[in-house]
Specification:
heterotrimer; A alpha+beta (about 475); B alpha+beta (about 90); C alpha/beta (about 475); A: about 475 residues; alpha+beta; Arc Repressor Mutant, subunit A; 3 domains; eight-stranded mixed sheet; three-stranded antiparallel sheet; 16 helices; elongated; B: about 90 residues; two-stranded antiparallel sheet; 2 helices; 3 strands; about 25% helix; about 10% strand; flat
Amino acid sequence: MTKIGLEIHCQLTKLESKLFCSCRADYREFQPNTNICPVCMGIPGSLPLLNKSAVEKATLIAMALDCNTPSKIAFFRKNYFYPDLPKNFQITQLNAYGNTSIGWEGKISVGDAKIRIRRIQLEEDPGRIIYEGATEKTKLTLVDYNRAGTPLVEIVTEPDFENPHQVREFLIILSDLLENLNVSDPGLEGAMRADANVSIEGGSKVEIKNIGSFHDLEKAVHFEITRQESLAEREIEIVQETRHWDDGRKITVSARTKEEEAEYRYHLEADIPWIRINDDTKNQLQVHMPESISSKKERYVSKYGITPQVAGILSSDRYFSELFENAKNETNAKDVANMITTDIMGLLDTREKRDSSKLNAEHLSALIESIKSSKITRTSAKLALDEIIKNGKPLQQIIDSLDLGHVSDEGELTNVITQILKEEAKAVEDAKQNPEIVNFLVGKVMQKTQGKADPELTLTLLKKSLAIG
Amino acid sequence: MVSEEEISNVAKLMKIDLEDHSSHIKRVQKMLEYFDILDRANVESEEITVQETDLDKLRDDKYVPYDKDLLKFLKSYQEKYVKAPKLN
Amino acid sequence: MDLGISALNYVSGIKNNEFTVEEFISKSLERINEVDKNLHAFLQINDVAIKNAKEIDAKIKSNQDVGKCYGMPISVKDNICISGSKTTCASKVLENFIAPHTSTVVSKLSSEDAIMIGKTNLDEFAMGLSTEFSAYGPSKNPWNTDCVPGGSSGGSGVSVAANECIASLGSDTGGSIRNPASFCSIVGLKPTYGLVSRYGLVSYANSIEQIGPMTKTVKDSAFLLNIISGIDPNDNTTLDNKDQDYLSNIDEGVSGKKIGVVTEMTNPDGLSTDVLNATNDAIKTFEKLGANCEHVSLQMVPYTVAAYYTITSTEAGSNLARYDNVRYGYEMDSSGFEFNSYISQARSKFGPEVIRRMILGGFVPSAGHAGKYFLKALKVKSKLITEIKHVFEKFDFLISPTVPIQPFKFGEKINDPVSFMMVDMNTVTANLTGIPAISVPYKITNGLPIGIQIMANHLEENSLLQAAYALEKTVDLPEVSI
């Protein structure tokens, strides 16, 4: 049987500062080596200062993944020499003297399967190596330390996955969960990375490292299983080893790590005392824990009568479910949900668009209200949405400035209809034979009024004019 | 006695070049031999004790940009990148 | 003008207009110029000290608020960072390292208008007890320049003993303040772990080391501790001492106190006769002062030196890993080198003792050997902590000679690693358990000093300084003649 286990590294991008210093946790906007300080650069005489919120957010993850959480957490040093590690050790966690990592022995459901979580630990991200030229011919290594010290949560699963498909399902569920907890933005480049270990029936375990994205993870696992199966078919032994994912060639290649590199000389990081996390703190965290995606979905269906499909889409996306929660009330929930899933999601389909959008919950509830009270049509509402997203002005102002107001004045509408009936003489004739043609005429009225005409009133007036119905 | 070979391997692991330093090996061996005294301390059942503190004593999550151009304190860099030797 | 005055007398001298800060600082600089060629206490001199002095004099003249130190010259061990100046740790590896930050202790002293007169010599990265492992040559004991001044804060000890400055800051990982204090006949205090911020101290074995004062008198140590102690947002391991004043009731005495004489630290086999005699004499002195002395056994003590070297080597192996000459260090062309060969080449600039500790530090915590060495060492430490806890339920203080022997000649011990390690026997207990300990000058025998060590329970610096002051008052030692 194929066994796959994962080690997922997730940056806590929702934090302001790094794990042990006050530099920015999200390093992405910075020029190289400008988001650094003596602490994250390991300058002699500097000391790590643990970020309280990092501990809290990591603990939230552990709780959400059904892990045991410790009464005290401890940090350890993992020692190895590498240019991206300013101190040549990484501050991480280890369950060496009792269980002192952020969490252990959790589980998560993926379809019908249960994936067990072995351990969750809080640690610092290394810097980034920027090679000059091709790897083979590199004469030197260039390093950007802006990322060094970014808070990272490592989630280690048991080898409970049986196929790449499950791996993908899990990753989708996990990223939604992390986003919903408001601890991370999995969409940011490099915010979530993973290593995998793969073994097939009768073979040794092979680790795959260096997988840049979740998309590639599934590919890498798939490739590795195929590689191992083809070895097995030819009765070639599958050796225990570490392989790197070659992003360019989309294959795994042997990393040929030396034995000595496995010696990490773990020992306690004395600069950070053990941190007591008492039950009060845990209860507080539990109380303030965002509602889980599944219970949110259930609530949307049972309380608001939203279809399971729409509820599913809405609940798994933190941004839109928040918009929904803030815009909905007892009477408009279904309409709000539908407008988000049918209109807004399409308009705000990228992170950039969301970031620059000026739309808020008040806009949305006002919009629904206006449609319900026939102040504007759905067509006008779409135009209004476009404007709101661009400039964020109050709905009424947008209705006024774009003249989107519903034409429900009988006199005004009658004038338009009279005009249309003149222009569309042929259709008028036909309509007398075929009542369906009336809809065509309604459309014409809408066109002329730029979608502002009250559709029901238009229909009534048209029928009256044509003396049908 | 811990072998010379073992000590040489550790030196390599610690990125210490032991060429012309055979005297170090002898001395490290002697020190390690002295450490055997730990076997007689009879402490197997002891728990390891450590300093503790409370979560609320920790730093609040606040971004405070570092006020110096640290890159200038660093030794060698190319444009804005720190220069390190090639990896393989 | 007497450069040999205490910090407290310096302050009253300034207040009484007996001398100006500038006068005292320039005299001190002259003194350094005169004696330090021979003693080599300093690695660097502050070249703006006179300017600083003038500024403080101006403040005094114009009746502005002046800090408690009134411009007194204080030397700082060269493993404590001062922004914009070199911090070499007496290593070639950090020959050109300029610190971008200032240690909390120096910030606190500076804000009380102390003048950092210079950076003092030490064993490379504070690993040693004689300054013989300084990459820039050893410091000499002012009592006998053929002898070591102790270490690793040897330069600090010499600078105070030879009246090159009023006081000094040292660091103590296994006795590095108390040992040179004892060898140079000055007072040296290692505070409770966490009482003084380590921010800006270059780490050697960060789980047990502390910065502390090295002074001419016990009161001076209390005076400096008042300034440098307390919780620091830049060091997660610091403790809140509620702004305790260690000076106010220092003359409380030891009458009625129970003092334990640690059997394993006064073992005649390990002690020189003169040190043993001095210790017995000190016991009698304490009894005359009204204290009750009795022998007490700490069974873990015989294992502490091995535990200490195991733990410190492990931590040093990690703390010194960053010296790979990539981000800072000395000029060395990396072209043609592969990363591992480059850093191995660069790290061969470490001196012999550091190299040995790196190897030990790679060995004792490694997967195959941690059980035999590192874990056992941690357990010895734990058991010692338990023992100490019990002992302090019964006793107020523990005493021993600070060092089992008197200052030795250069080269005398360096070739025998085991007997070298044994010199630390009496001092490492305070580091492994985190308790405060002080060395008080007690005797000069054969022209060389002997210090007595007093230890107290966690955060009991107040009573520790009272006991030290009581002992100090009973002795009248000669001045060093240099």
